[in-house]
Design brief:
Number of helices: 5
CATH architecture of the largest domain: 2-Layer Sandwich
CATH class of the largest domain: Alpha Beta
Number of strands: 10
CATH topology of the largest domain: Alpha-Beta Plaits
Largest sheet: 10 strands, mixed
Structural class: alpha+beta
Helix content: 10-25%
Number of domains: 2
Length: 265
């Protein structure tokens, strides 16, 4: 179906009760909730939505973008308020902009930044579970910081991908990868000290960041060495997928920059 107008809409969501963005059978997803709400707002099904990419179950987003195709023009002054008043409290729409009909949110060049929040040393308050992964073991955080920097640059991520297709491109470039103390989110039920893995790149493989975080957790526990990470990123690595994947609840899609000025964070 050909639609007359196209818009991009930025949203935030807490992913803890959802099975990611993409619609699936018999589970609750962000995409399903968005479409149900839009049907209520428009009172018809003559629209289409397209997300900027998939997210895993329980993964949250400080910023996510979807493209909306419709036939009638949207009144910006009232649309976001009406959309937000009908969305559940764990999803919020923040921004709307009209784009060309030829624009495609999936194919558009973009830069994504992911954050992974974690703490260690003792069990966290249960209220922190949707935001931070807490490990009760002690971690060598300085080793983990050094290990994180090894992911920066152009590498071969065969070992950091789950169920790739025949067309999967494993040679990827990570613009920035570092572990820092968390001063982004605070709450009285958060641990006294927590940390963030910050990763920026144009695109990521399925479970890539969680597998990277899993390796860094193993490094922090001194179950493997810095040299293991170096070898795992070489072109001649054994290409066997890693098994240690970090829990999804600590991961957050923090920001997206669409190139060519359609929208920037």
């Amino acid at each position: 179906m050909q639609y007359k107008s196209s818009y991009i809409i930025t949203i935030q969501f807490l992913g803890f009760r959802f099975h990611g963005w993409q619609k699936q059978t018999n589970v609750k997803t962000i995409h399903e909730m968005i479409d149900k709400t839009l049907f209520f707002v428009f009172d018809h099904h003559s629209f289409k939505t397209l997300g900027v990419g998939r997210t895993d179950a329980k993964v949250s987003a400080n910023m996510y973008i979807f493209q909306l195709f419709v036939n009638e023009p949207i009144d910006k002054s009232v649309f976001l308020d009406k959309l937000n008043s009908n969305l559940p409290n764990d999803i919020k729409a923040n921004f709307l902009k009209k784009v060309s009909k030829s624009f495609n949110i999936i194919q558009a060049p973009k830069m994504k930044e992911y954050l992974y929040f974690f703490s260690f040393g003792k069990k966290n308050h249960p209220f922190a579970a949707p935001f931070i992964v807490g490990l009760e073991e002690d971690l060598n955080i300085e080793h983990m910081k050094k290990g994180a920097k090894l992911f920066e640059g152009e590498h071969y991520f065969h070992k950091y991908c789950t169920k790739p297709s025949e067309k999967t491109i494993f040679k990827r470039t990570i613009a920035n990868c570092e572990i820092i103390e968390n001063n982004i989110y605070t709450a009285n039920f958060f641990p006294e000290r927590s940390y963030v893995l910050r990763v920026k790149g144009k695109g990521f493989l399925r479970y890539q960041i969680r597998l990277m975080m899993g390796v860094l957790f193993q490094l922090g526990k001194e179950q493997l060495t810095i040299d293991f990470i170096k070898e795992s990123l070489k072109e001649d690595n054994d290409r066997k997928p890693l098994k240690s994947i970090a829990p999804s609840s600590g991961l957050q899609l923090y920001s997206i920059i669409l190139k060519n000025s359609e929208h920037t964070n």
